[in-house]
Amino acid sequence: MSKGSPRIMILYASYGNGHLQVSHAIESELRRRGMNDVVLLDLMAEAYPLMYEINKFVYMQCFKNIPQVYGWIYDKTKHMQSDSPLGNLLHCLGMTKLKEYLLNEKPDLIIHTFPQAAVPLLARQAVNSPRNVTIITDFDLHGRWLHPGVDRYYVATDDLKSEAIDRGICSERIIVSGIPLMPLFDEPAEQLSGLPDGLTLDPDRKTVLLMGGAYGAMRNCDEICKHLSLEPDLELVIVCGRNDALCRRLTSLFKDHPNVHVLGYVNQIFVLMKYSSCIITKPGGITLSECIACSLPLFLYSPVPGQEHGNALYFEGKGAASISYEPEELVRQICALVRNPEAVNATRNRMKSLHKPKAAETIVDDLFKNLLHLNTELLGV
């Protein structure tokens, strides 16, 4: 181990923003504990900059325009073995660049927030390789996350742990931690700062939060918003993210509607979640974890085949979400829930049962105690 503070490397990928958010949450907790020698690395971007940009563009286009193809590939490879020909090929990606980083940086620990197994593959080939752990950032388990060379897995649910065990991972190497979020998601609503500038919510209406900007506009977004705007007891907050075209279009469409609020990128999304009655969103693992932390009833619209669909089915099976594929069906589901206080409370309670608070603290506690073997007084910093 390095003298002084251990050297920690966090590997992520920027396919979407979720893996990076988890990486930042872990980095923040490590630094809070006094671990200042932490580096984040997008391995694929560093190893293959041009190919990576092309691959990311193709991935996003498949995800948006031909999701059935993406889903078919996901399903066909979901149970692949780490030592299969495809598994070995994927695990070798970035290997040369990784060896260079390991030689130069000499980390004591590597944390994965994206399913790339070059590190555990190296660990099985070399002596004195760094310890490595994986934080699984979905509620649906794909074979790419699993490799016998991983020292520790951190998963969102007991069900995921059971599935990983069924696939041959030793129980002692799996910790049910939840998915790490930024600390503000663990704060009570009354302790948070106010709503985004210029936004005022009517306390006599139910607030519906619609996340419309991920990977381009949500399918049928305009039609969904029009339907919801006609419901007299609802107030609609639309977050367009960095989708400027969607923000301009919806702002123009609803400029005269007092109960529809169109926002661009929002830093205080946790505040909006805490004050909302329900949310319409895509079922990414990090977004779902944020909703669990806020006990916010979920309406999952047209989930893309693949991990999104798997995530959505899991939450629907737990009674924590409703899935729909048509705007009218979605609006019926929302109205039926928010107008029934008992149903709302029951849904929130089911979401609370899924919540694993302070996941980043749980993970760092375990890293300190069982992998880095640091002094216990650091655990309470």
Automatic annotation (TrEMBL):
One example GO MF annotation: hexosyltransferase activity
Domain of life: Bacteria
Every Diacylglycerol glucosyltransferase N-terminal domain range: 19-180
Gene3D superfamilies, sorted: Glycogen Phosphorylase B (3.40.50.2000)
KW Transferase (keyword) present: yes
GO BP term (any one): glycolipid biosynthetic process
GO cellular component, one term: membrane
Domain called Glycosyl transferase family: residue spans: 203-350
Matching PANTHER family: MONOGALACTOSYLDIACYLGLYCEROL SYNTHASE, MONOGALACTOSYLDIACYLGLYCEROL SYNTHASE 1, CHLOROPLASTIC
Name of this protein: Processive 1,2-diacylglycerol beta-glucosyltransferase
Annotated organism of origin: Paenibacillus uliginis N3/975
